[in-house]
Amino acid sequence: MVREHCDRTTALVNESSQLVLAGHVEPQDDLRAERKRASFSSQELAVVLNGGTEVLQRRSRLISQLQSTSWGSQAAVSQRCFHSREQLHVEGLVAQTEIWKLMQSGALSQQDAKDMETLLTLPGGLTLHQYMFIPTIETQGDEEQQAYWLPKARALEITGAYAQTEMGHGTFVRGLETTATYDRASEEFIIHSPALSSIKWWPGGLGKTATHCIMLARLIINSKDHGLHPFVMQIRDLHTHLPLAGVRVGDIGPKFGYNGVDNGYLMLDRVRIPRRAMLMRHARVTPDGHYFPPSAENAKATYGTMVAIRALLVDEAGWVLARATTIAVRYTAIRRQTSERVGDKELQVLDYQNLAATLLPLVASAYALIFMGKASSDMYKRFEQDRDAGNLASLPELHVLLAGMKALSTWTAADGIEACRRGCGGHGYSALSGLPDLYASYVQNVTLEGDNNVMSLQTARHLVKSQEAVAKGRRVEGSAAYLQRAEQELHRKCSVQAPQDWQTAEVLDAALRHRATYLAAEGHKLLLRHGGGKINFAGPDWNGNTVQLIHMAQAHSQLVLHTTFAQSVHQADLEPAARAALIKLVALHGMSLLLRDLQDLFMDGYLQAFQAQMLVQRRNELLLELRPDAVALVDSFGIADYQLNSCLGRSDGDVYRALLEAASGQQLNKTEEGPAWNAVLKPWLDPASRQQARSKL
Ligand SMILES: Cc1cc2nc3c(=O)[nH]c(=O)nc-3n(C[C@H](O)[C@H](O)[C@H](O)COP(=O)(O)OP(=O)(O)OC[C@H]3O[C@@H](n4cnc5c(N)ncnc54)[C@H](O)[C@@H]3O)c2cc1C
């Protein structure tokens, strides 16, 4: 009887399942089919994008090494999104110190160690020690100071943070208030926070990790303020890790993301440090209190470090966006929603035009930024060679170019990750998609290393100055050289007569250049009008027009980005099918940039309505033409599943199984009844408990 019941159940359910699953497609089959329909080999393109087979092989080797450890195993990595701040903080430091150990033992080169940390994507309290504390001593300490501090820092006998920003000031560095007053009698500096607003606030690793920091404070000698200078300052006891006398230090609390890192606060009450704690490679204070300022050349060299970091940020933006688009494109290629009749195959959501129009331009942006990142680091390397030969001539151009590009690239990547997350629907909101954490950790980049608005305004200043130079008959070189021909350019009109014309590189370049020229000319005119014929780079004239000025800088950076992308594809060593796909991607990139701010091209009559309609039409056609290559384009980034750490983005497409496994393995599911059962739910829901409670009344 029981057997018969079971058989009947199975038969009935099988029948229903067949009915419902008639149009079912296994996600893995979808991804396989996507890869089959691609027009080029993603393996070959991955080699080009990543800079050679050896780079990819080295990455696989590092991932295998990581996976063989307890702190870097796949299981450890995928559990991270369930962990508390405290756990993440400790795990980050465990990983960083273990990698440090491997490096010290010679098992890893310095570059391997850096790359391993990048692959692990688990930020820790030692990041600023590596990227700011040690480099600042290297570049600003004199020989004796380097010989004293660097061996200790490299052996991790001390750990450091970079304490610049204060509660009251970040962007306006000259407004920082912490004082370093020289006491000639004892040959010491007294470091003090004179107000609440002068408490150091934000430095990474300062809260709980750092024993020392680079302290940026105003040097004051005999009541004379010599401005900001760097000091190496001990803040914690090396035996107990407790704060030293006069030091109040701690973590600033939970943040939007990046929560494993102990960004800290530091308040100082007349703390004395020796004279030689001031880093004296460029500026000096003698024992009797004489101050020797840095030379102008040295001040410029310090600028160079900032430029190097911005070049890295541009490169990173491309690869971060590559991660987000890999997740979103793969997932939307296996995600199916809606069929016309029940039982028919549902549509892959990437086939809805709205998703293709969101994601494919972002894939194009990721490619553009990756090529721009390469170009930026090449430019920086050339600058380094010149600098070592005593020539700093290329620094101003590099500075303005990368200021605007830092802003454009980090804005594009941050907004792009969020667009990818939304594109993944409900599952995009799950931490298991990898997108919320990627966004929360990344979005700080629009503020760090120079807030993006402020960066854009630096580029805007250069564009205005360039126009002033042109007006005075001087030659303008570099990325703003096109402004030389502004007068002729402003009379030009768009030449498009058919939708296909929009795909030609010349037409797109011309439109982007026209837009940048027009906006630069408008910004210049605006400032002249407000200044009564004179340009003011500060004060109400400037501050009251920053919307237009930022927009103008963005248009300039977009032009540079797009032309660099097009040129890089032109010069890259690509097989013909991959080149054909990338040429289309370049076109999509240019069209998307134009469509985003189309009104600019109408302002001076450059564009006519029929040409705008043709632009939309050609962009839509291009989306369809690129759609079969969508998965291959993201596969070509060559990002390993380990790095993606996403149930949605995994390369085999087995998304639903991955989601179930990850969800069921977490702490909240450790017991079947859940942690709130006994104390909270049981008294309400369990009839026996209710009965017992009533009988007590
Ligand atoms: C995660 C994280 C880590 C950090 N790590 C460190 C660290 O290790 N060490 C350290 O010293 N600091 C660190 N910082 C601080 C960081 O450098 C500053 O937050 C950043 O420089 C921006 O300064 P701010 O916070 O004062 O912004 P504000 O300058 O107050 O910006 C507020 C708004 O005003 C606008 N604005 C400001 N000035 C201008 C202007 N002149 N023109 C137009 N608009 C303007 C900005 O665009 C922004 O929208 C960190 C910050 C974060 C978020």
Question: How is this fold's topology laid out?
Answer:
Elements lengths: L1 H19 L6 H10 L5 H9 L2 H15 L6 H6 L5 H20 L5 H11 L6 H14 L2 H12 L5 E4 L15 E5 L4 E5 L7 E2 L10 E10 L2 E11 L12 E5 L12 E5 L2 E4 L9 E2 L5 E2 L3 H39 L1 E2 L9 E2 L4 H36 L6 H29 L1 H5 L5 H8 L9 H20 L14 H4 L15 H26 L8 H5 L2 H26 L4 H21 L2 H5 L5 H18 L3 H6 L5 H4 L10 H10 L12 H9 L1 H10 L1
The structure holds flavin-adenine dinucleotide (FAD).
* CATH homologous superfamily grouping of the domain at 304-635: Butyryl-CoA Dehydrogenase, subunit A, domain 3
Name of the level-1 CATH class of the domain at 304-635: Mainly Alpha
CATH architecture of the domain at 304-635: Up-down Bundle
Largest sheet: 6 strands, mixed
Strand content: 5-15%
Number of H- or I-type helical stretches: 27
The rounded distance between the terminal residues' Cα atoms is: 48 Å
Whole-number mean pLDDT: 95
Number of strands: 13
User: Rough shape?
Assistant: globular
As for the CATH topology of the domain at 304-635, it is Butyryl-CoA Dehydrogenase, subunit A, domain 3
- Nearest-angstrom radius of gyration? 29 Å
What is bound: which ligands? flavin-adenine dinucleotide
Contiguous runs where pLDDT drops below 50 for at least 5 residues: none
Structural class: alpha+beta
Subcellular location: Peroxisome
Main location: other
Domain Acyl-coenzyme A oxidase N-terminal: 42-158
Cofactor: FAD
